[in-house]
Design a protein that fits this description.
The protein is 40% helix and 12% strand. It has 448 residues and is α/β, with parallel strands linked by helices. Strand 5, helix 9 and strand 6 form a beta-alpha-beta unit. Pyridoxal-5'-phosphate (PLP) binds next to helix 5 and helix 6.
Length: 448
């Protein structure tokens, strides 16, 4: 029996209605894999090519049969097709890490002399990649003056700007940007809107519903959910016009994409519906080598099966924890709570517009001093002090010291990150136990 439950995945709306079914089944037909129910790990470097006819078809990009695992792998392909289906689109590529997903995406979108317009409301290592690495290779980085104001983004666009980049739920302050407004700005200038949707995951937000062109993930986080494999993914809308003159790398005829008669072609000739991920996968990931390990794709596939139920529970627990922290704020033991469910959260209208299945499991709170922050973190017992998020275990981290050390004090100020901030990533433990842990830690910190 073929897998008739793998639904038509061409419409984003449809994908929204059957998220868990897609997360369990899309992109995989057991009949093609000895009827194995769980996706097999294809632990092989290369594949028997059978004969010269098949080699000719492969070399001409007529079939996407596997040749060598740095180029493609059946386990990786299931994860790619499943992630594409969860977004209601066609094109996705997995990478060795979220950082590799971001790096390869920017190399694909911006050639030497081009520029990226972004903000400091980003994961710390992303800021470092932008500040420390890309400019040396000819990709300029500009920081928007007021990230809350679409007009400020528009004003920041230079003739060389090729993409805008934001996180859909920023870390640690959980700020939700106005994606539709940013997409309108980007498209008025014929450039890409690229978003990092790691914290939201495709379950809370499908960025393609709002005009986003390219979505990147660290699958390491909630998509995997079990803290056991580093990975990344790049997904594309399939709607952007790469022939608009701003992206000659997509229209240039290249020997690399030649057909079976040795005619050079552009990537748009080869893959008109998925040019971004085809070029990213076939050229950049393949040639620069940031391919995902099939074993890690397998772990990610297993984790992804339960994304919806994990996030439903984590969303509920997180709101309970926010309510508790707000009572501590009223009692004067906490200075601020940052989460879309917090009563004074300044971006509520945007969170409600874009996050339809809950506000997510990441939050942070500020205490009155760095000294107090240290005492609270050291007194927590159930929360693990760990640099990860989206794990099924609840985690705590000091953003100033660990996740955002790359930001200078001035950049932290611009990003509104407090030095007395504590970030929590809520997992699947009983909410009452997590709240009790926070309470005893605050009690201890105030008894010092
Ligand atoms: C962790 C993270 C990354 C980097 O991903 P890795 O898998 O660790 O390389 C990028 N963006 C966000 C928002 C992250 O949380």
């Amino acid at each position: 029996m073929t897998d008739t439950t793998t639904p038509d995945t061409t419409s984003a709306d449809k994908a929204a209605d059957n998220f868990s079914t897609l997360a369990l089944r899309a992109g995989y037909d057991p009949a093609e894999h000895n009827y194995a129910s769980s996706v097999p790990i294809y632990s092989t470097t290369s594949y028997q090519l059978k004969d010269e006819d098949r080699c000719t078809a492969i070399a001409g990009f007529e079939v996407d049969d596997d040749v060598y695992t740095r180029i493609s792998n059946p386990t990786n392909r299931v994860l790619e097709q499943r992630l594409a289906a969860l977004h209601g689109v066609e094109g996705a590529v997995v990478t060795s890490s979220g950082s590799a997903a971001i790096f390869n995406t920017l190399l694909n979108a911006i050639t030497a002399g081009g520029r990226l317009l972004t903000t400091y409301r980003l994961y710390g290592d992303t800021v470092s990649q932008f500040n420390e690495v890309l400019p040396d290779y000819g990709i300029g980085i500009d920081i928007v003056e007021d990230p809350d104001d679409p007009a400020s983004w528009e004003a920041g666009i230079k003739p060389e700007t090729r993409a805008l980049f934001v996180e859909t739920i920023s870390n640690p302050l959980t700020i939700v940007p106005d994606l539709e407004a940013l997409a309108a700005v980007a498209h008025r200038h014929g450039i890409l809107l690229i978003v990092d949707n790691t914290v939201a995951t495709p379950y809370l937000l499908n960025p393609f519903d709002y005009g986003v062109d390219v979505v990147v993930y660290s699958t390491t986080k909630a998509i995997n959910g079990h803290g056991n494999a580093i990975g990344g993914a790049v997904v594309e809308s399939g709607k952007f016009d790469y022939a608009n003159g701003n992206y000659p790398q997509f229209t240039r005829k290249s020997w690399f994409f030649k057909d079976r008669s040795f005619n050079s072609r552009s990537v748009l000739d080869v893959a008109p519906d998925t040019p971004f991920t085809t070029r990213l996968g076939a050229l950049l990931v393949t040639l620069l080598g940031a391919s995902q390990s099939p074993f890690d794709s397998y772990l990610t596939l297993v984790g992804l099966e339960t994304l919806a139920v994990r996030l439903d529970r984590e969303n509920d627990t997180t709101v309970k924890i926010v309510r508790y922290l707000e009572t501590e704020k009223a009692a004067g033991r906490i200075v601020a709570v940052h989460h879309p469910s917090a009563s004074d959260y300044p971006y509520r209208a945007l969170a409600d517009k874009y996050l339809h299945r809950g506000y997510g499991a990441l939050l942070s709170f500020d205490v009155d001093s760095e000294e107090r922050k240290k005492h609270v973190i050291d007194a927590l017992q159930l929360f693990s002090l760990q640099a990860n998020l989206g794990d099924s275990r609840s985690l705590v981290i000091d953003p100033f010291l660990i996740t955002h050390p790359e930001l200078t004090l001035e950049q932290l100020r611009i990003a509104d990150v407090s030095r007395s901030s504590i970030r929590l990533s809520i997992g699947l433990e009983e909410p009452e136990l997590l709240i009790a842990d926070l309470k005893q830690a605050l009690d201890k910190a105030f008894a010092q």
